[in-house]
Amino acid sequence: MLAHELALAGVRTVVIERRPEIDARTVSGLIHERSVELLEQRGLMEQIRREDGEPLVWDRLHFASFWLDMSELAKTDHSVVLLQTRIQRLLSDRAAARGVHILRRHELVGLSQDEDGVTARVHSPLGEEEIRCGYLVGCDGEDSAVRELAGFAVTRSGPSWYGLLADVGSYAGPVGAGSFHEGGMFGQFGDASTMFRLMTIEIGVEAPPAEQPVTLEEVRASIERITGERPTVEEPLWLHRHGNVTILADEYRNGRVFLAGDAAHFQFHPAGHAVTIGLQDAVNLGWKLAAKLQGWAPAGLLDSYDAERRPYGRRACVYGRAQMALLDTADGPSALREVFGELLDHDVVNRHLVRAATDARYPMGQAEDLVGRRVPLVSLSTPGGEVPVAETLHAARGVLLDLSGGTEPPDVTGWKDRVDVVAAEPTPEIPASAVLVRPDGHIAWAGEAVGEGLHTALAAWFGEPAA
Ligand SMILES: Cc1cc2nc3c(=O)[nH]c(=O)nc-3n(C[C@H](O)[C@H](O)[C@H](O)COP(=O)(O)OP(=O)(O)OC[C@H]3O[C@@H](n4cnc5c(N)ncnc54)[C@H](O)[C@@H]3O)c2cc1C
């Protein structure tokens, strides 16, 4: 996603990926509506709909093995079933088509940075090589080499349990999304038409050494220890151990090196929001890096990445840890679980849990409710016909939506190379005379289309006007 963002802005970009190809495992299957919006605003959902049809809406979400009540939120906060491999393929093809060099079978093994750039040391099929770049972003997951090599400090907790995840083709045994027992918790999701996903959590049981491959017998034995029932488990598709580790980078930036996605924040994942938070990181950082490289970034723009995104990474980690506490079968946590279950009878609690880490509102110095939030992706009535807001963001440039109905044409002369103007009829979903939308889709300013306020906001987010 980040490479695609950078390519849209015309930045020369190289992706170093150690895998020979996109992993066909269907590890993650759900993305939140906020991710769909990000893909929509770059015109990427069109291709998915064209080729695969409308993705299935998933209006349930589990939090610590409680099903959240999504009925209130079904329109705005549902998830859709979109396999991670599908998104990766789409992004990878689109980024490559825009000139990104994707070097597979290339593993980052070293890096050093100086005032002018970063040198990455890479193992490739042809031997070791060096790649020199202006900036380097570690989107390299939970065990991020970039995080380690660049010396990022992290706050880490866990593991305190031993867990297994198993995707299998054939299963007979205990059922249900989450059953709690003295020794741990067991969950079973899916069915024979797709696949069975089995999940175990055992407290006080030591996990086998990490280098020992997970076997079907290990899965059967764990389920039996927890539930007392011996299951039949066959046709392994993917077997994985998961401890409840949480890792949050203390900073997302170290000089010319950045972290995004799981490399920046890794947390227990059953709420299905990890991909969304990672995509939000990428879209937040892409245009800022481009602005810096193209010489128009106002002071502090690059640092605003950490300021805006780390609170949501932290939130994801805190909510992950809270889920782990609720899944603990010890006496205190199980009482807490009962109380928590009662709180979930209230819509406001469900809403809060669903939105806590995904509904990003960044501090932009204006009190208006709109400012800092994502621009609603509604359809606008323009002199040339209906134009979806999402379409105005396809090029990943700034956009001034002039919703004054043509009474106050704004003057953005000095910023025309960075900001487009779209004039449209007022719309109740965006209650302002004009809004300035950043390339990531967040509203940076709202106010009157003419006057000092607009020019101050343009300078604050898009730098000095061109002469
Ligand atoms: C069972 C399971 C189910 C999940 N379900 C969901 C879900 O439904 N919804 C959701 O939102 N999230 C889900 N997640 C979480 C989601 O999969 C992750 O948050 C997501 O993959 C993180 O993406 P990423 O790009 O940050 O890192 P990764 O997907 O880990 O990608 C990192 C990439 O970096 C590469 N790499 C690593 N080190 C190097 C190196 N030194 N040199 C070169 N390349 C390197 C790796 O090969 C990999 O391709 C699930 C996770 C699991 C385990």
Automatic annotation (TrEMBL):
Gene3D superfamilies: 3.30.70.2450, 3.40.30.120, FAD/NAD(P)-binding domain
GO molecular function: FAD binding; oxidoreductase activity, acting on paired donors, with incorporation or reduction of molecular oxygen, NAD(P)H as one donor, and incorporation of one atom of oxygen
Name used for this protein in its record: Cyclohexane 4+2 cyclase
Domain of life: Bacteria
Annotated InterPro entries: FAD-bd, FAD/NAD-bd_sf, RIFMO-like
Pfam families in alphabetical order: FAD_binding_3, Rng_hyd_C
Encoding gene, per UniProt annotation: mad10
Keywords from the named record: FAD, Flavoprotein
Keyword Membrane attributed: no
SUPFAM superfamilies with a match to the protein in the record: FAD/NAD(P)-binding domain
Cofactor or coenzyme needed: FAD
Residue ranges of domain FAD-binding in the record: 1-316
Chain coiled-coil ranges: none
UniProt keyword Flavoprotein, yes or no: yes
Organism listed in the record: Actinomadura verrucosospora
